[in-house]
């Protein structure tokens, strides 16, 4: 929901950084994989209660996630690059609840609920892209140039990262925060299914 607003602020500096990295011959896929490696460090950091350091690597992961697309736009964007990016994103998103589950046994049920809701949003997002490809729908482009159809929702990348920030700043409230985010994720998944059905009825 907030992604279009954020992109207006971050795209220009990311584009300049992407052009510089591309000129040095750094590939977008290398940045994607580096970002995943950095992001996965959040799991042991969260497990041992190092919430400040975990927040740092989470934000660094998101910075690298923005840079890989910027580099791709200045080199040669590929379908595989977009595929690799979304796979790494989903692994990273799943890793953060896992870290909180390992940090406190009381978090486990709520982390599991959050993971289940992430499966719902992921399935609705990727499934919508498959439908759009089959129908030859065009992405409206409000969230920047993407390698495939981008289905909007209440919970998108910006909202997920904001949730992770609050998780790390207020770890004692993780069960309540996770329950709220999970509710919005399930709502997002349901809304995408309804939107896909509506689009089919109109076609």
Largest sheet: none
Return the structural class.
mainly alpha
- pLDDT averaged residue by residue: 87
Strand content: under 5%
Proper CATH architecture: Up-down Bundle
Number of discrete helical segments: 8
What's the CATH H-level homologous superfamily?
A: CDP-alcohol phosphotransferase transmembrane (TM) domain
**Helix-strand string:** HHHHHHHH
Work out the count of structural domains: 1
Helix content: over 70%
Task: Give the oligomeric state.
Answer: single chain
CATH class: Mainly Alpha
Low-confidence spans: none
Description of the molecule:
The protein has eight helices and no strands. The protein is an all-alpha fold. The protein has one domain: CDP-alcohol phosphotransferase transmembrane (TM) domain (Four Helix Bundle (Hemerythrin (Met), subunit A), Up-down Bundle), CATH 1.20.120.1760. Helix 2 (28-40) runs parallel beside helix 5 and helix 6 packs parallel to helix 8. It is globular, with a radius of gyration of 17 Å. The model has no long low-confidence stretch (mean pLDDT 87).
């Amino acid at each position: 929901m907030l992604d279009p607003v954020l992109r207006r602020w971050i795209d220009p500096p990311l584009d300049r950084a992407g052009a510089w990295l591309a000129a040095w011959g750094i590939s977008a896929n290398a940045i994607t994989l580096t970002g995943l490696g950095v992001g996965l460090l959040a799991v042991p950091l969260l497990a041992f209660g190092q919430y400040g350091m975990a927040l740092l690597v989470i934000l660094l992961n998101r910075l690298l996630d923005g840079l890989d697309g910027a580099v791709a736009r200045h080199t040669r964007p590929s379908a595989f690059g977009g595929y690799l990016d979304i796979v790494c994103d989903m692994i990273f998103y799943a890793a953060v609840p896992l870290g909180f589950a390992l940090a406190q046994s009381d978090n486990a049920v709520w982390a599991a609920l959050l993971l289940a809701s992430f499966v719902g949003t992921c399935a609705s997002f990727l499934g919508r892209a498959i439908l759009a490809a089959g129908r030859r729908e065009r992405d409206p482009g409000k969230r920047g140039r993407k390698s495939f159809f981008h289905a909007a929702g209440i919970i998108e990348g910006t909202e997920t990262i904001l949730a992770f920030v609050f998780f790390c700043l207020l770890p004692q409230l993780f069960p309540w925060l996770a329950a709220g985010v999970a509710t919005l994720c399930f709502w997002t998944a349901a809304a995408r299914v309804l939107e896909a059905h509506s689009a089919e009825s109109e076609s």
